[in-house]
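The aim of this short unit is practical: by the end, you should be able to scan a pair of folded records and say something sensible about each. We start with the first protein, listed as its amino acid sequence and then its structure tokens.
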Amino acid sequence: MEAGQNPGVRAQGRWVTAVGQVLGNFVVSLVVGDALQSTLVGARNWRLWNWPPFAVVLGLGGAALLRTPEGPGDQFLWPYLLIGTAVLIALVRVAGVRGPAGAQALASALSVALAVGGTVWVEQLRSHGEVDVTGLTTVAPSRPLVDGERLVVAVDGGPVRTHLRLVLGVDDAVPDMQSCTPETSLALRLGGGSNTVTGVRSGRPVDMPLGGARDGLRVTVTVHTDTGCRMNVFVVDAVLHG
């Protein structure tokens, strides 16, 4: 005990400090809630060097989500899975889960690598992924066709791709008087090209190379059916890819 210091004064000071801490914790609990208070207290134990990988993973994941192109959702399953796994691993590292130093460093590196892989995958899909352009197609003429007649399926708009996957449907124009759909086939020719895909049935997908990246597509369709049959031809699905 220091000379001249009153023991009663020192005890009183300790009591005031303890009361102040209790009141302070009570006020913080009321303002921010117990859960956030526990999180803030636990944050003191978080290691600073875990934050840069976490920030990189979040940045790459956010960029990938913002740059996700249009198209069927199933093609984004794997890149999203990679990014989600990366965020989970990085979050576990930031939360201060302890383990061997080598394992911790490997986990941080793995989270960044997964985020990079998912982001690159999204960019690949942005340039070469599938895009549904069914709503951008037109069929002319739109009337029923007989054997040997032709129509043109036009695809205007959409991103530049190298392949067109087209599904055409065929049904009877007068279903009460005829049943010609099973015997009807189509022949498809892209633009001014010489290659023709024959024997195409209703609902069968046809993948047509476009001869290089291009847009403003025209597909000539020739109807082959029985004499006297009148058929409706329409677009079921049109997807650009590649």
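Turning to the second protein, read its sequence before its tokens, just as you did above.
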Amino acid sequence: MTQVVERVSAAPGNNIQAFIDLTLLNCNLKGVYQYQVIKGEGGVEDETKTKILVMPTDEKPQGMKLLDLIDEINGIISSFGGGEKVKKEDMVETLASMGLKALENISVQIRQLFLYVDKSSIEANTKPCEYAFNFVVLNEVKPEESLKLFNIKSLGLAVYNTDRKKIIERMQLENIDELLA
């Protein structure tokens, strides 16, 4: 026979929540950290829960010019006491080999940046970590003139471990099964 024990809400004074609203590559993000102690009743041990969430708050993904991104990165490097800055000249040769010769016209976009952690001191209540990252170069990528055999129309990378519909939709992923149908 299984005993069902009702839990009361979080114990007063044992809860912490920290949050941040920030912008990364012109993508508005919200981050939330939550720590909670749930008092057990009827012989059930107390449970501590830690949740972390990072996700976009804007409806549509926003992009950023690559030169602006380089300037931002260099500003961060300077703010934190130095280090070697990113040199635009070093990037020109690599990007030119992909047909991206006008550095000032290259735009990048974070379509999705999602992280959800739900961890409990009671192992059975811990859920798997979910994440999603989708980064896209918005410009057409054209190889050097000597490589006319192919042309890359778009380039991106998506890494994810979630099946949340809203998160997947924002990533604008192609489904191989639907492409073959």
